[in-house]
Specification:
This is DnaA regulatory inactivator Hda. It comes from Thermithiobacillus plumbiphilus. It holds the Pfam family Bac_DnaA. The structure is a single chain. By secondary structure, the protein is an alpha/beta fold. The chain folds into two domains: 148 residues, Rossmann fold, CATH 3.40.50; 65 residues, Orthogonal Bundle (Helicase, Ruva Protein, domain 3). The protein has ten helices and five strands, in the order αβαβααβαβαβαααα. The chain has a five-stranded parallel β-sheet, sandwiched between helices. α1 runs parallel beside α2 and α7 packs across α8. The longest helix is centred in the last third of the chain and has 18 residues. It is elongated and about 60 Å long.
Length: 240
């Protein structure tokens, strides 16, 4: 069985709206990656593949989803989380489920570290890469480690994974977390004063996903109460 648009795990329409390029917080540490991915998504890049790597929470998925969304206007452009994809596919060889992806304008493979060491999946991605390149398509990948530092089982894929542009994303600092929260608040029409953001950072774990969930809760509460975000109001909503 071959992979087809009807069988794909498509760009998940359940992703938050802010996962586009305009909603990505730009910093000195990620500016090069943002430019490289947005250029790739405009089909203007001199390379045909980009591999992003860095720890969780650094915005890799955001960039992959943003690129897939932008390229979707020009044609089929699937975003595929390798963990979810492998878990949801029925029994069979991975090569079956990646066949046909060369018809896409751009393919985005996320969480590549999950297939490291599985030679069947590495072979499938390796051949998909070759077919996609032959058709003039582009490949955008992300993983937690640089491809050269990942324990691949297939030597050919270990070499091919580093063929294009490889860019690392640095861990978030508190000023980045505050900037991300303020950018996402502004997208909701909500002002997050710096002192309120710092108040949250002092009292909650620095995990950006959890902080975004807290921002969602505050947004709903502020809308319902017709209130601005102040430290007393935040205290009352979050009960501390």
């Amino acid at each position: 069985m071959s992979f087809s648009p009807s069988l794909q795990l498509p760009l998940d329409l359940g992703f938050p709206d802010e996962l586009h390029f305009e909603g990505y917080y730009r910093s000195a540490g990620n500016a090069e990656a943002l430019e490289a991915v947005s250029t790739l998504a405009r089909a203007e890049a001199p390379v045909h593949s980009v591999y992003l790597w860095g720890p969780s929470g650094t915005g890799k998925t955001h960039l992959l989803v943003a690129a897939a969304r932008q390229m979707a206007d020009a044609g089929w452009s699937p975003y595929i989380d390798m963990v979810d994809f492998a878990a949801q596919m029925p029994a069979g060889e991975p090569s079956q489920w990646l066949a046909g992806l060369e018809r896409a304008s751009l393919v985005c493979f996320d969480r590549m570290e999950s297939i490291a060491g599985d030679i069947r999946w590495e072979e499938a991605v390796f051949h998909c890469f070759n077919r996609l390149q032959a058709q003039g398509g582009r490949l955008l990948m992300a993983g937690r480690q640089a491809p050269a530092a990942t324990s691949w089982a297939l030597a050919d894929w270990a070499s091919r994974a580093s063929w294009g542009l490889v860019l690392g994303l640095p861990p978030l600092q508190d000023q980045d977390r505050l900037g991300i929260l303020q950018l996402r608040a502004a997208a909701r029409g909500l002002e997050l004063p710096g002192e309120v953001g710092e108040f949250l950072l002092q009292r909650y774990p620095r995990d950006i996903r959890q902080l975004n969930r807290i921002l969602d809760e505050l947004d709903r509460a502020a809308l319902a109460a017709a209130r601005r975000l102040t430290i007393p109001f935040v205290r009352s909503v979050l009960r501390f």
